[in-house]
Structure formats: C-alpha cells, structure tokens
C-alpha cells in the first residue's frame, strides 16, 4: 500500500489534488503557491485528470469562479498565498456564508508592505474570521494528509464549509521531504463521490443564490453559521480516525509532544514545531520537563480540549509566526482564551518569530525554554510580548 | 433548437421567467430588459448578477423573482462567477456526470458593476472564451447607492458625486464607450440594444445564443429616479436615446459592424436630454457650450460608427 | 424538541422556491391606477411587452385582459406607450382610490 517519495510540500498537495480529481479548479499564480497549481495544471494538460481549469485574471476572480462552480454543484479546489488571499478577502466570507465546500491549500506567506515572498502566518491569521475551516500542517506529509482529509470534512453533509489547508511557504512548500503517498484508489475511495446540495445545475428546481438579507434575519444566519463550525471538530476526528485506519497516521485537533508530565510548554504551529521538538528532547535529557502543543485546527479553535491539555503546566510560551500590531499574537490570544476556563491560570508569554521567512533557529527555542524555566520557578512574567531573533 | 418567432401574440402566451413581486422602482427600465432577454429564447438559462438595483430588488430575504437558476455573490465579479458555473457545467458534461441540455449562461450587471468595478472580471472572462453572454443594463450611474457618477455617466449629467454646482457643472468627462472596448476583445458577438426596440433586442439575444463563446450586450435601461424623469417614460426615453443616435443600435459579429436600426431622422440630442432633470442645468444660457459639446460627441461617434458599418458592408458584398 | 428560529433558516441562504416573489404584492405601492378601455384596445400587446412588473394579464389565446392590480405599481408606461384606436388611448391613468 502506498509509495514512498521525496517531494516538496507543493508537490505533495498537487498529488493529493490529482488523486481527488476535482471537477473545477480556478486559480491564479502567486509565490509560493504557484508551483502547486502549475504542477496540477500539468496533470490536467496531460489528461491524467478530468478537472476543468479556469485560469483567471486575479485571485478575486479565482474565488468568485470557485464559488460559481461550487454552487453549480461539483467538487472545487484552488490554492493561493499572501496577497492572493488578501485579494480574495471579500469572497472568502461569501464562500463560507453560502456554505460552499471549496478546498484551498494556503501556502503561508508574509503580507506587504514591505513586499516579502517568504513564509509566515500573516495571511492565514488575517482570514481567521472568514468562516473557513483552517488546518495547519507541520510538513509535507501533513499537508498531503490534511488536504485529503479536508475534502471529507468540508463536504460532510452536516458541515458544507470551505477549508484552507495551510503549509509554510518555502520552508515546507519548497523543501524536499520524505512523503508516503496513498494509493490512488484508496484516496478516491476515502474521499468518496461528491454529493451536490442545492446545485444550480438542477434545471428542474431553479434556485436563487445570494439574496439580500435584512436586519431581521442576518443575525440569525450568523448564529447558524457558528453552530455549523461547532460540529467540525467531531467530524474532523471521525475523519481522522478513518484516515488512521487506512494509513496508520494519527491526527487530532492538535498534537502534543512530551506534554503529559511537562511543567513548561511551548505552543507553536506548523513547521516550527519540528525544530522545537528537537530542542525539547535536549532539555528533557538535561532533566527539564518541557513539552509542546501544536494546534492543527485553528478554525474552529478547540479551546476546551487545549485547556485540558495545558492545565497542569507551570508556564506556557506561545509562539506566533504572525503579528497583531498593538495587540498580542493571534495564537496567543486564542490560548489565553483557552486558559480562561482553567481554575488556576499558568503564567504565559508570547513570542513573535519568523516573520517574512526569518529562520526559526534552535537557539530561539532554547531562549524561550530558559525563560519558561525561570517563570515556572518564580511565577513572574516580565514582558508578555516580545520578538524572537530580531537584529539589534 | 429552432429560434422562436418574435410575434407579440405568441410571446404573450409564454411563461415569464422573471416574476412579478420584484421590488424595482415603479417604471424602472431594468426589469423590462431582463424580461425581454429571457423571453427571447426557450433555451435553459442560468444567470449570475452583480450586486446592484436589479440584484437587491429581485432576490431579497426569502423571495426571488427569478424562475431560472440564479446566483449573486458580489459586485465586481458577475462574469467570474458565471464563468465558474459554466466551467462546472462543461466539466460535468464532459465527464458524463450530467446530460448536455444546451444550457446558456448569462451575467447581468449594471454599469457600475460592468464598466467600473467589474471590468477586470468581465475582460478576463471574455478572454478565456467561456460560452456565456454578459449583459450590461446601463442606467448611467450607481443608482442603487443613490445616483453616484460612474464611467458610464454621460457628459454633463448631474449626479450626487458630480453635482451641477456653481463652479463644476456636473460630469465633465465623456462616458466610456464600453461596447467598443468589448469589441476590441475580438469576441464573436458584441451588440448594443434598447428595450424600446424590443424586436431588435430580442433578435440580438437569439443570434447571440446561437454563437459559441463569449458575447457581450450593452442595453440602455432608463432609471427615472436617477435620470430625474417621469415614471412612465422609460420606453420613450429608450427610443429617444436611439433616435438621437446617443445610443445607436448596432452589432459587431466576428469583427463586422452592422447598424441594425437606423433612425429615420436623426433627432437633436436635446430631445433626449430635455425630459431628464439630470441635464436641466445644461439648458441654462451660460451652459450652452455643454449642449454643443454633448451633441458634438454624439455626432462624431455616430459618424465613426457609420464608417465602420460601411466598411463592414463593403467587406460582405463580394461573398453575398 | 422544537427547532429554534435560526435553525430553520435555509442552508447558505439559498432561496429554493423559484419565482416566489409573487407572494410579495407590490400593488400597494401604487398612487396612480391604469384603466383599460377595452373598446379602444387593438390588442397590439405593447403594454404587455413594456410593463416592468408583468402586470398586464394575457389569456390562453394570447389576448390582453385586465391589469393585475396585485402587482401593478402604477408607473404609467403602458398608458404612455398605448397607441389605442384612432388616437383614442386604451389605457388612461387615474388617481388611485378615486
Ligand atoms: S402602470 Fe406600470 S406597472 Fe402598472 S400595468 Fe402599466 S406598465 Fe405595468
Ligand atoms: S397597448 Fe393599448 S392598444 Fe395595445 S394592447 Fe395594450 S391596451 Fe391594447
């Protein structure tokens, strides 16, 4: 079963999309997601898949065409990064509010200005409230696996929401890693046939998409939208369990690493988790009880489950690869939201790191762990929010 | 499919595909345009609609006036949205997942959603060659938000963002000639029409639907609120627009221009301007130059169109 | 358990009943009312073609009948465009409620 390959994150995502064979893909080139879609377009040109490509003139039109195609009644995917996602902004809300299960690998990249094409989470974090499901991946294998699972979650009849599968620009999208591909037939079988809900192409039952909704109903529509999101974690875990049966690879709403008996912990998403795990091992060897929590699902955010996993800690550092100017980092804000439900609240610090593709280095993880050790001893936090690796 | 005969008595027996109970203002030109377009053919139609008067008034809360599948998503993307629907249709037909029912795809947009904010999306969809028709109902301003100037607003017009004041007497620029710009995309069919000439309009729709690929129609849609005219004169003004050559009826089929309805006698532009309050200030003695300039522009455009049509004729004659 | 109001809303706000705007009667907007004078009517159907509110009723033979006052907004387009018989209009506008 399956096949071991050495591929980049983009290649792995393109392979997943190829195996799923969506009916329509509308896309526009942007670094670092370009390479994903051009590989995919190659499969289409070679007749390997049936997808109809709509090669639009902007990301705004890419998402608009995806919305039209999804409403028409078929399986739809696209991919983007950074400014592309920002240009889609308006349409992201419309895709979610209209309950259209569009799948979009988001190759995370910094936002202008200044212009920068490298990886950070500014784009994804900005789209936090659009109503999309957001799943973050640590490496190419996860990006591949998450892409496949995202179709099942998003297209579930109780959900019908769009989903972003996030992977770090260049760090994951362009680095060659060992990835285990699943057999085409197994992917096909796992994802299943697309079930259209209220398709526009049903000529005998004409529908109208996109009415004007006034003050007496809008509020309720948004309430209903939140309710659907609350059902996502349960479905995502069901899908993950089935996925594990097929591949042996286990996924949850988040991943913990040596956290059960830890006293201090780092919370960090995506590729930086890998480096952090290595340093945690070194500190464990020195007798420091350190652990890690890596959120996988950022929207909906599993507040209660994460609180439960963090409740025994003496100090927590949340590392954000995105910033909120004049505020705490976005992940930090969510973790404080989690911690709110705890009886005793552990002291917490927030580190902003790796903006615009700045390397996240082992010594940064060490610096954070050293600080956590001190905080655990004294219970005192000096500065809540600081920047890691800033040249001074 | 055989093209259906355009006999009023026969047409009137048919079922409307755009229902009453819509909430456009009394006497609005846009629903007349929509009804004539949809009535011209029996093909199944799926439409998208840019945000605007037509959209908010035809599909509001739990009510829709559309009897065909219809989608609105945003303001600037009616073309991109329908191109996605069309691509899905093609994909599913190609894969044998659905039958080919010769579905026709239309995007409706007002002039704001077409000339201005939706222009990129329109241009892109036309270049990609989707089998679709874009229909602009042009009322010459952002009427839905309260009569603001658009690039389709005619020279001199008084709008809420270019009010005729003591120093600036309304809009000082000529309107963008979008029909020509669309023709420059070298798509198979481009036409200009008016609901006052329903037969011409419907013939153009019929012709367009027999042509594969991207089509564009620009249709004048009088708006009594924005034009500051009477609620009963939409058709009268739509006809005057044609007969003054402000809005010539023509088509460009595979690059060949043809004037489809030539006014018997070209009326002075003032006949079109006078009944509209938005041009009232132009009739003040000190603004005489504005009337002259407006007339001069119409004359020059008409002159050029006639030349292009003559060239089209010359090109055709040898074969016929 | 009975559903809350917001749980009954259609998914994605899609309107499933085509043409159900017919349930929304716009006739109450009218301040002027068209009157059909049948003896002047030449059945040219212009009124039907130009009415923005599909409010000129037509029977199975394709012949014009009276207005549909549930929806007619009283714009007067039909009256203005009506050629009538020998210069006598077959539609005149009257003040509503008179
Ligand atoms: S008055 Fe206006 S709405 Fe009423 S029937 Fe005549 S044209 Fe239609
Ligand atoms: S426009 Fe006048 S003459 Fe013609 S059908 Fe209507 S009422 Fe009769």
Features:
heterotrimer, A: 392 residues, Rossmann fold, 2 domains, 7-stranded mixed β-sheet, 6-stranded mixed β-sheet, B: 320 residues, alpha/beta, 15% strand, binds iron/sulfur cluster
Describe this structure in words.
The complex is a heterotrimer of chains A (392), B (320) and C (98). Chain A is of the alpha/beta class. Chain A folds into two domains: 4-247, Rossmann fold, CATH 3.40.50.970; 254-387, 3-Layer(aba) Sandwich (Rossmann fold). Chain A has helices at 9-20, 34-45, 59-72, 82-97, 122-126, 140-155, 184-191, 215-247, 272-285, 303-310, 330-339, 362-378; strands spanning 3-7, 24-27, 52-55, 76-77, 102-108, 133-136, 163-168, 177-181, 208-209, 254-257, 264-267, 290-295, 297-299, 315-320, 348-352, 385-387. In chain A, the strands form three sheets. Chain A has a seven-stranded mixed beta sheet with strand order 3-2-4-5-7-6-13, sandwiched between helices. Chain A has a six-stranded mixed beta sheet with strand order 10-12-11-14-15-16, sandwiched between helices. Chain A has a two-stranded antiparallel sheet with strand order 1-8. In chain A, helix 1 (9-20) runs parallel beside helix 6. The longest helix of chain A has 33 residues, at 215-247. The model of chain A has no long low-confidence stretch (mean pLDDT 97). By secondary structure, chain B is an alpha/beta fold. In chain B, the strands form two sheets. In chain B, strands 4-1-5-6-8-7-9-10 form an eight-stranded mixed beta sheet, sandwiched between helices. Chain B has a two-stranded antiparallel sheet with strand order 2-3. In chain B, a hairpin with a 2-residue loop joins strand 2 and strand 3 (63-64). Chain C is of the alpha+beta class and 98 residues long. Chain C is elongated, with a radius of gyration of 18 Å. Chains in contact: A-B, A-C, B-C. Chain A binds chain C through residues 97-100, 160, 197-198, 205-211, 213, 217, 220-221, 223-224, 227, and chain C through 5-7, 9, 11-16, 18. Strand 9 (208-209) of chain A pairs parallel with strand 4 of chain B. One iron/sulfur cluster binds at residues 34, 51, 53, 55-56, 67, 72-78 of chain C. One iron/sulfur cluster (SF4) is lined by residues 36, 41-47, 64, 82-84, 90-91 of chain C.
């Amino acid at each position: 079963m399956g096949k071991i390959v050495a591929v980049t994150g983009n290649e792995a995502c393109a392979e997943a999309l190829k195996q799923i064979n969506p009916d329509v893909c509308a896309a526009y080139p942007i670094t670092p997601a370009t390479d994903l879609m051009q590989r995919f377009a190659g499969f289409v040109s070679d007749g390997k898949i049936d997808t109809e490509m709509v090669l639009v003139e902007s990301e705004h039109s890419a998402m608009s065409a995806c919305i039209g195609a999804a409403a028409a009644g078929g399986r739809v995917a696209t991919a983007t990064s950074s400014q592309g996602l920002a240009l889609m902004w308006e349409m992201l809300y419309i895709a979610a509010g209209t309950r259209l299960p569009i799948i979009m690998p988001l190759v995370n990249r910094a936002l202008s200005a200044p212009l920068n094409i490298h990886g950070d989470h500014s784009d994804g974090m900005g789209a936090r409230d659009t109503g999309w499901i957001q799943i973050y991946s640590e490496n190419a294998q996860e990006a591949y696996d998450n892409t496949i699972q995202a179709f099942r979650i998003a297209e579930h009849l109780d959900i019908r929401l769009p989903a972003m599968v996030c992977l770090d620009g260049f760090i994951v999208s362009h680095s060659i890693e060992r990835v285990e591909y699943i057999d085409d037939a197994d992917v096909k079988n796992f994802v299943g046939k697309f079930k259209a809900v209220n398709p526009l192409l049903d000529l005998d039952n004409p529908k109208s998409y996109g009415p004007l909704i006034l003050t007496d109903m809008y509020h309720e529509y948004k309430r209903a939208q939140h309710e659907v999101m609350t059902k996502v974690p349960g479905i995502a875990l069901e899908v993950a369990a089935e996925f594990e049966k097929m591949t042996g690879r286990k996924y949850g709403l988040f991943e913990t690493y040596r956290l059960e008996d830890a006293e201090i912990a780092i919370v960090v998403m995506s590729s930086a988790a890998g480096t952090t795990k290595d340093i945690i091992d070194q500190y464990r060897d020195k007798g420091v009880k350190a652990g890690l929590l890596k959120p996988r699902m950022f929207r909906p955010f599993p507040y209660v489950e994460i609180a439960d996993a963090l409740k025994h800690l003496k100090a927590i550092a949340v590392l954000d690869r995105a910033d909120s100017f004049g505020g705490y980092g976005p992940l930090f804000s969510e973790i404080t939201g989690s911690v709110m439900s705890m009886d005793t609240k552990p002291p917490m610090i927030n580190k902003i790191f790796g903006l615009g593709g700045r390397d996240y280095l082992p010594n940064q993880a060490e610096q954070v762990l050293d600080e956590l050790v001190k905080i655990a001893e004294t219970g005192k936090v000096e500065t809540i929010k600081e920047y890691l690796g800033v040249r001074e | 499919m055989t093209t259906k005969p355009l006999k009023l008595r026969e047409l009137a027996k048919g079922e409307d595909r755009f229902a009453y109970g819509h909430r456009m203002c009394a006497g609005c030109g846009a629903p007349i345009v929509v009804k004539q377009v949809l009535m011209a053919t029996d093909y199944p139609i799926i439409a998208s609609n840019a945000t605007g008067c037509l959209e908010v008034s035809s599909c509001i809360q739990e009510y829709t006036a559309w009897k065909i599948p219809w989608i609105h998503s945003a303001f600037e993307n009616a073309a991109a949205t329908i191109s996605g629907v069309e691509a899905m249709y093609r994909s599913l037909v190609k894969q044998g997942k659905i039958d080919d029912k010769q579905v026709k795809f239309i995007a409706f947009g007002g002039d704001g959603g077409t000339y201005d904010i939706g222009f990129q999306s329109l241009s892109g969809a036309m270049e990609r060659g989707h089998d679709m028709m874009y229909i602009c109902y042009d009322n010459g301003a952002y009427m839905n938000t309260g009569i603001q100037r658009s690039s389709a607003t005619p020279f001199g017009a008084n709008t809420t963002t270019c009010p005729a004041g003591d120093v600036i007497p309304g809009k000082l620029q000529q309107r963008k000639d979008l029909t020509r710009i669309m023709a420059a995309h070298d798509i198979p069919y481009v036409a200009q029409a008016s609901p006052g000439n329903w037969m011409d309009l419907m013939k153009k729709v019929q012709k367009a639907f027999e042509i594969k690929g991207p089509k564009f129609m620009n249709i004048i849609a009088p708006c009594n609120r924005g034009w500051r005219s009477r609620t009963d004169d939409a058709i009268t003004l739509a006809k005057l627009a044609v007969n003054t050559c402000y809005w010539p009826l023509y088509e460009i089929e595979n690059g060949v221009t043809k004037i489809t309805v030539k006014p018997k006698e070209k009326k002075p532009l003032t006949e079109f301007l006078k009944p509209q309050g938005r041009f009232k200030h132009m009739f003040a003695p000190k603004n005489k130059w504005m009337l002259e300039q407006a007339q001069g522009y119409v004359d020059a455009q008409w002159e050029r169109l006639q030349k292009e049509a003559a060239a089209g004729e010359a090109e055709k004659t040898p074969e016929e | 358990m009975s559903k809350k109001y917001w749980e009954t809303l259609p998914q994605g706000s899609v309107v499933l009943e085509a043409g159900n705007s017919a349930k929304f009667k716009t006739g109450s907007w009218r301040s002027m009312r068209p009157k059909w004078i049948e003896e002047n009517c030449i059945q040219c159907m212009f009124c039907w073609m130009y009415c923005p509110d599909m409010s000129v009723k037509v029977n199975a033979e394709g012949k014009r009948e009276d207005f549909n006052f549930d929806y007619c907004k009283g714009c007067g387009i039909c009256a203005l465009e009506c050629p009538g018989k020998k210069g006598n209009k077959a539609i005149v506008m009257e003040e509503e409620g008179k």
